[in-house]
Amino acid sequence: MSTTALLPKERLRASSLDDAPQVNDLLHRLGLGTLTQETLESFAGRNNNWAGHTSSGARVFVKRLDGDRDEALIRFRRVLDLQEAISAGGTGDLRCPPLLGHDEEHRLLVFAWLEHGLAGNSLAAKGEFDAPLAYRCGRAIGALHRLPLIADRSAHPLPPTWALHALPLSLFSSARVAELHYWTLLQNDRPLITALEALREREKSVELRSCHGDLRLDQFLLHDDRLHVVDWEEARVADPARDVGAFAGEWLHHAIRKINSDVDKVYGPGVTLTRELILERGAAEIAAVRPLVEAFWQGYRDSGVTVDAGLAERATSFAGWHLLDRLLATAGMQTRLRPIDLAAAGIGRNALLDPGRFVGTLGFAL
Questions:
Q1: Count of alpha carbons within 13 Å of 142, Cβ hemisphere only?
Q2: What CATH code is carried by the domain that includes residue 87?
Q3: Tens of pLDDT along 211-258?
Q4: CA neighbours within 13 Å on the CB side: how many for 351?
Q5: Is residue 90 domain-resident?
Q6: What is the pLDDT of residue 34?
Q7: What is the pTM of this model?
Q8: Is 104 in the same domain as 171?
Q9: Concatenated DSSP letters for 240-268?
């Protein structure tokens, strides 16, 4: 579920349709024509996908949910359930690309392709994700949380508190050195483990809502000035603080990434980031993104959704976990943990251990 999500989605050479004849079979049955290899595009992600113009002129985005068949079918049905719920009870604040058809046997989903849509992570990377857009994102997620409860009531798999006690052999043997170092730090941090277990336990006693479940900036898509939310494969009934906290956690991760991105510009060439400089830069970057979280939070509350008294603190805890989760994904691509990674982990840890203290710091003040 974790990815390096703050990088703009990379367009790739599309997988050959020769290996997936079911794609054009489905498009033909839907009356949409067929795709040709020459015009195809694909996007980075855990699932194979194909985008392009069909022979009838339709613009389509086809996703095949890959992996274990039974698990993929669960994700497939979540998408259908959520799309139906939005169509039946959504508002203008909450949109998703139209679902044109599907094939359960082959786990294929066909959407209208918003070809020139701008993903939120791309806008963030270019400094073009502003407070009005964040406000609209908040209203969209508030509208989601007002929908009738969807079918999937299964417990969310994250945080993986089971892995904080022992890693299964399959995960241990495939992990890189930096990942194992990170897991060791987490597993030896008893206060952190207690906080994560308590966060999961609290979810059993709060009012649950229909939630996205895997919210990241790249799941917000701006097309013709209309905001869409995409990728509903982890949707389920859950604590709404998961989605609210994930938005703030994305901006925490964005702020941490910026600490390393323009050090030479800020301090001059050749400067080594000491712990003190990391903390100084981190505080400044978090302060810079706080208005975006504040705007999101205002939009969320203005959506008409009911906000319980503890949601802001729980969202702060989930933001801390989101940052730790993003760093775990980053560790999977590195040979060692850097000082900036350890400092970022400390920020996430603090948000989890004392969320009441950091509610205002993140932008969730009432």
A1: 22
A2: 3.30.200.20
A3: 999 999 999 999 999 999 999 999 999 999 999 999 999 999 999 888
A4: 31
A5: yes
A6: 96
A7: 0.92
A8: no
A9: THHHHHHHHHHHHHHHHHHHHHTHHHHH-
